[in-house]
Specification:
This protein is an alpha/beta fold and about 425 residues long. Helices cover about 55% and strands about 15% of the residues. It has a three-stranded antiparallel beta sheet with strand order 3-10-4, with helices on both faces. The protein has a three-stranded parallel beta sheet with strand order 7-6-8, with no helix packed on it. Strands 1-2 form a two-stranded parallel sheet. Helix 3 packs antiparallel against helix 4. The longest helix is centred in the N-terminal third of the chain and has 27 residues, at about 100-125. The radius of gyration is 23 Å and the shape is globular.
């Protein structure tokens, strides 16, 4: 590893921390990370250039040291960095996390390529005998990161970094949205491992040849909120404000349900109503496909809407008398509850070639990770360290203060994994 390579990784991780919490700062940090990565490539290839993003990219691209797709990714980061500087100077133009999503995706693409390139350069150097000191070869494992509490807790508590170090692998966290693209990323070796909803994984294994050929389910990692994660949130001032669960289920015609369609949350809606998307239409229910990060502002736009979201939205709504759960898992018939519990399971998946390189069996890897996770739950100091890490790095509604964050973290950990005490 070069001195600058360590700096590049540090800047990349720093940029990721700002993607949700401060998108304007993220744009500048992303540009600095991209510049540092290109500088490291130039240093390793002994290419002379001014240490600016434009100069580095121009010189490296001219020498075919950066592929066209990566050039496009860097240009995207560069343009968004310029946009961020302009927005900060203009009259109060706000930049949201959703606005910077293309830049985040471009930075992720650059970082994944860089991880592979750095390894290839190191191997080439060793082959040519240029290394003065014999060193242990180290590979990079790309693990999908997450700001969701229920997933981030596993990433922090399972000891991925320690376990991979035993196999001479260093860990790189890659921040990607919670969607089916996680599975496809593993199949394409953009990622080596990811945790995702088990039923969505099984569906993709059945329907997509590349996923079936390249993705290996390693093992189940627990259930989001213990399988009790479904709810329909309503505004008391809206159309359904005076309805009961029984009345709603008897006649849901006219309901508008806001939910990210390409997610397990939409699967939960189908499981709760024991139907498919066409069946919802026959019931008179309209589905509004919304971004996964939207919160209570949904009701500012349409107070009659019914919202399906994560536990952040759920806990935020509980702090206000203006909202209530018109329907949730515990109000449904036993069969529906069973389907929802099955739909709430999360599974660790890995790329088949990566597993072969690691020289370990999937069940052995799963056993070691879960042993570390349960040990964390029984050691108070480690558990509290994870709690504080989640409070600092998981995603929360902007209005959620320090006490609310801690309450939400402890609630999710107890309901999902029976760790800590109920809140």
């Amino acid at each position: 590893m070069t001195v600058n390579e360590g700096e590049s990784l540090r800047l990349y991780k720093k940029a990721l921390r700002y993607a949700e919490s401060d998108p304007e700062v993220f744009l500048g940090a992303a540009r600095r990370a991209a510049e540092s990565i290109l500088l490291d490539i130039a240093l390793q290839e002994a290419v002379g250039s001014k240490p600016t993003l434009e100069s580095l990219l121009t010189v490296l691209a001219a020498k075919d040291l950066v592929p066209p797709k990566v050039v496009l990714a860097v240009r995207t980061i560069q343009n968004y960095g310029n946009y961020g500087s302009h927005a900060q100077q203009s009259s109060g133009e706000e930049i949201s996390a959703e606005d910077v999503r293309p830049c985040l995706n471009a930075l992720t693409q650059l970082a994944v390529w860089y991880g592979r390139t750095s390894k290839a350069l190191a191997e080439d150097e060793a082959q040519q005998g240029l290394a003065a000191v014999q060193r242990t070869a180290t590979s990079t494992t790309r693990l999908a990161d997450s700001s969701l509490i229920v997933i981030k807790a596993l990433l922090l508590g399972c000891g991925f970094e320690r376990l991979l170090a035993q196999h001479h692998h260093r860990l790189m966290h890659v921040q990607l949205p919670w969607s089916d693209q996680l599975v496809r990323g593993v199949s394409q070796r953009l990622l080596d491992m990811a945790i995702y909803n088990e039923q969505r994984v099984l569906r993709l294994l059945e329907t997509e040849d590349e996923v079936r050929a390249q993705v290996v389910p390693v093992g189940r990692m627990g259930y989001s909120m213990g399988g009790r994660n479904f709810y329909l949130l309503a505004a008391r001032a809206g159309r359904w404000g005076n309805a009961t669960a029984a009345e709603f289920l008897a006649d849901p015609a006219g309901a508008q349900i806001a939910v990210p369609k390409h997610s397990d949350m939409f699967d939960n809606v189908l499981a709760a109503f024991s139907t498919d998307e066409a069946g919802l239409l026959e019931m008179g229910i309209t589905v509004l496909d919304v971004p996964h990060h939207l919160g209570l502002e949904l009701f500012h736009l349409n107070r009659d809407v019914l919202a399906v979201g994560g536990q952040n939205l759920r806990m935020h709504a509980r702090d206000s008398d203006d909202y209530f759960e018109l329907l949730n898992s515990e109000m449904l018939p036993p069969r529906a509850q069973h389907r929802l519990r099955s739909a709430a399971s999360n599974v660790l998946i890995a790329n088949r070639s990566w597993l072969a390189e690691l020289r370990t069996e999937a069940d052995e890897l799963h056993r070691e990770l879960m042993r570390c996770f349960h040990a964390m739950g029984s050691e108070e100091a480690r558990f509290e360290e994870v709690v504080q890490d989640l409070i600092a790095h998981a995603s929360f509604p902007q209005e959620c203060g320090p006490e609310g964050r801690e309450r939400l973290v402890r609630h999710v950990l107890f309901e999902s994994y029976r760790l800590g005490e109920p809140c």
